[in-house]
Design a protein that fits this description.
404 residues, alpha+beta, Butyryl-CoA Dehydrogenase, subunit A, domain 3, Butyryl-Coa Dehydrogenase, subunit A, domain 1, Butyryl-CoA Dehydrogenase, subunit A, domain 2, 4-stranded antiparallel sheet, 3-stranded mixed sheet, 11 helices, globular, binds 3-thiaglutaryl-CoA, binds flavin-adenine dinucleotide
Length: 404
């Protein structure tokens, strides 16, 4: 009997046996459509992502062939109107899609959330109708891929100090500067770039691959998000046509509004990592025999699992309520910061605990914890670091700005 269980465990290693966990019956608060969307994205991830993702991460390769499928399942801009070829879904559906993609890998969710929240959303929210019609349908299918350039080598948490700038040359703008740590940059067809005009106001520009002076060198040597492509954006006297400026916004609130949408997606997405690690740990603890018993029968293992599902359930409740508020356009940036910070921190802790439950096997690519854990080190840093989000909450509750 004991031998049989350890044998079954070896057979299970490397397979995606994931099942959703809903301890507080939150599905009763979702629509049938939400549950169907979750199942269909989960099925797609099991079929297309799980079999290849470990290998891609080990080789530090972005699985570019998945882009078409991501477009087909509606992962690019699902929350934007159907008129532009997008999904026309609500914010909870958007969150569920991000959760299921990130359950597969944070890099896959990154690709989708950059495309939907950081490239398509600013074009939709701040763009002209011509810009929307030109870019959104192609971005929705994945025919064109986009990236979002805010961070610079010397300005990460403090983007208002950015140095990238452009001058008005009459019939075009002349852009100079650089961006760093840009997801999707190495293969993006389109870049939404934030830079200062001659008056120092931050504006959004749409750049296209092939513009003279615009290059996108790849960032190598990452230990995290290895299945996602990261790069720089370099602008050396790039002539940007005047019709490529986003007319609807000026100032830092432009990029920060986009970040609010992407951070909301991450708040759901990181729960996907936590669910995957918990799911694997529960199964392993029932099957792995030591001292003549499944390790799940020991109190210390149960403490780990009980705390994991408690924290997951709390985070699930938080993002569901946040989704309701977002559907009503009542979610504040500070509420979104709290959820992003909480979900990612929770997921990182769970990845570590779940890794321990798997013992030595936990460090191998047969199980997903190490990959999630490494990925989450980026997720806890990008879109506002853990401490920046704490300071946003601190400012919201006290009224004092502790950033500067
Ligand atoms: P501050 O004076 O506070 O704000 C400037 C203006 O922006 C408004 N605002 C927001 N609007 C919408 N959403 C938000 N979340 C907003 N936060 C602030 C604010 O009301 C103000 O408006 P107005 O009308 O008065 O001008 O700006 P600050 O310079 O003091 O900075 C504040 C701080 C530190 C919170 C902000 O800069 C920040 O969030 N820093 C973190 C930077 C960050 O998150 N970078 C992310 C780069 S993109 C990325 O990481 C993508 S990874 C994608 C992936 O692969 O998934
Ligand atoms: P810094 O801002 O230098 O921060 C370093 C440390 O100082 C952090 O711990 C921070 O919390 C702390 N700190 C900073 N200011 C304060 C303060 N006032 N009080 C207390 N502590 C403070 N950016 C984009 O624009 N587009 C992208 O697509 C993108 N993708 C990314 C992908 C990856 C894999 C990574 C790692 C990053 C990506 N980023 C992207 C950049 C990301 O948003 C930044 O790394 C992040 O905002 C932090 O900036 P920084 O790395 O310069 O760190």
């Amino acid at each position: 009997m004991i031998e049989t269980k350890n044998h079954e465990l070896k057979k299970a290693a490397g397979q995606d046996l994931y099942q959703h966990h809903d301890y507080y019956l939150l599905d009763e608060m979702l629509s049938e459509e939400h549950v169907l969307i979750r199942q269909s994205v989960q099925d797609w991830v099991k079929k297309e992502v799980s079999p290849i993702i470990e290998d891609c991460a080990q080789k530090a390769e972005f699985p570019k062939h998945l882009i078409k499928g991501l477009g087909e399942i509606g992962a690019f801009g699902p929350q934007l109107p159907e008129k532009y070829g997008c999904g026309g879904l609500d914010q909870i559906a958007y969150g569920i899609i991000m959760q299921e993609l990130e359950r597969g890998d944070s890099g896959i969710r990154s690709t989708a959330s950059v495309q939907g929240s950081l490239v398509m959303y600013p074009i939709y929210k701040f763009g002209s109708e011509e810009q929307r019609m030109k870019y959104l349908p192609k971005l929705a299918t994945g025919e064109w891929m986009g990236c979002f350039g805010l961070t610079e080598p010397d300005h990460g948490s403090n983007p208002s100090g950015m140095l990238s700038h452009f001058e008005d040359k009459g019939d075009h703008y002349l852009l100079n500067g650089s961006k760093m740590w840009i997801s999707n940059a190495p293969f993006a067809d389109v870049a939404v770039v934030w830079a200062k005009n001659e008056e120092g106001a931050i504006r959004g520009l749409i750049l296209e691959r092939g513009m003279e002076g615009f290059t996108t060198p790849t960032t190598h040597g990452k230990w995290s998000l290895r299945a996602s492509a990261t790069g720089e954006l370099v602008f050396e006297d790039v002539k940007v046509p005047k019709e490529n400026i986003l007319p609807g916004v000026s100032g830092l609130k432009g990029p920060l509004t986009c970040l609010s949408s992407a951070r909301y997606g991450i708040a759901w997405g990181a729960i996907g990592c936590a669910l995957d690690c918990y799911d694997s740990a529960v199964r392993y603890s029932k099957q792995r025999i030591q001292f003549g018993k499944p390790i799940g029968a020991f109190q210390l293992t149960q403490k780990k699992l009980a705390e994991m599902i408690t924290e997951i359930t709390k985070a699930q409740l938080m993002v569901l309520r946040l989704g309701q508020l977002k559907n009503e356009d009542r979610a504040t940036p500070a509420q979104i910061s709290m959820a992003k910070r909480n979900s990612v921190d929770m997921a990182l802790k769970i990845a570590r605990e779940a890794r321990q439950i798997h013992g030595g096997m936990g460090i191998t690519g047969e199980y997903p914890m190490m990959r999630h854990m490494m990925n989450l080190e980026s997720v806890i840093t990008y879109e506002g670091t853990h401490d920046i989000h704490l300071l946003i909450t601190g400012m919201d509750v006290t009224g004092f700005n502790a950033f500067k």
